[in-house]
Known about the structure:
The structure is a single chain. The chain is α/β, with parallel strands linked by helices. The chain has nine helices and 13 strands. The strands form four sheets. The protein has a seven-stranded parallel β-sheet, sandwiched between helices. Helix 1 (13-24) crosses helix 6 and helix 3 (88-109) runs parallel beside helix 4 (145-165). The structure holds uridine-5'-diphosphate (UDP). Uridine-5'-diphosphate binds at residues 81, 176, 188-189, 192, 204-206, 211, 213, 247, 270, 273.
Amino acid sequence: MSNVFLVTGCCGFLGSNMCEFLLKKKYEVIGIDNLLTGSVNNIKYFKRYKTFSFIKHDVIYPIKIDKKIDFILHFASTASPVDYIKYPIKTLRIGSIGTENILKLGLLNNAKVLVASTSEVYGDPLEHPQKETYYGNVNSVGPRGVYDEAKRYLEAITTAYHNKKELDTKIARIFNSYGPKMRKKDGRAIPNFINQMINNENITIYGDGTQTRSFCYVDDTIEGLYKFVKSDYNYPINIGNPKEYTILELVEFIKNLISSNSKIKFSILPENDPKVRKPDITLARKILKWEPKVELNEGLKNTIDYFYNNK
Length: 311
Ligand code: UDP
């Protein structure tokens, strides 16, 4: 098979899981990462694959690759609220300048380009569940604005490259993916709660825990993204699991899987933290013939094992 994939953000959670998936399918994979929030630990055992190569590079600078690339998966971004609040300007640059550099590379290669967007483009949604046609409710000057607007710009420029330059683009709106290779100190709910319970520390619930999220196990997310990049569809598709849980319910699920003395500690809900989130995946089912298969309990077990084995 001569298909060459380029994966940006290859040392991050989704990027490294995607590389592994592609390498197992025997594709040639070139990974790019600037190691701002990603870790080389996530790719170190790819050395066994002769078909993997790594380039340390920041996508906000133009990049030349000597090889013909057939598919690009653009994940590079700070993705956790703790990171984008710490690196606000960088986050905007990666989403804007970085994305345009990758789209230009796509044009040069006549490649299919999938860009990772996010359920955050819907902000604190007033439509529930969220369909791709919903425009969102985002506060551009709030703490999450840097990420939300970077990703909204990513969608806009990607669409412009498709409409104006006929680039074969795909926009994946990814909803709360989780699983092995997340960082312990990622700051997000699932790694936080698991590691707090493993270490018998307080379980930090922000707000009263009645806010909801819909968590998608990484293997499902990756399969959906792979089907999408191989498709001929050029507009946004939600990639997520439509099963919705409150944060209190999530804590209960994890508590039932880990024996721990941890106690819940409530603190204030961060500004603009969405109160609900749940994807409508009618489009993904229809266009990609895809839907998630892994139940929350099963996905959490695998994630807990990962954190136990990587203490
Ligand atoms: N959250 C929480 N405690 C934590 C981390 C997150 O209560 O230690 C809450 C957070 O306020 C949000 C939900 O869990 O309402 C999901 O947060 P996460 O950062 O995982 O993802 P996002 O907000 O980007 O969906």
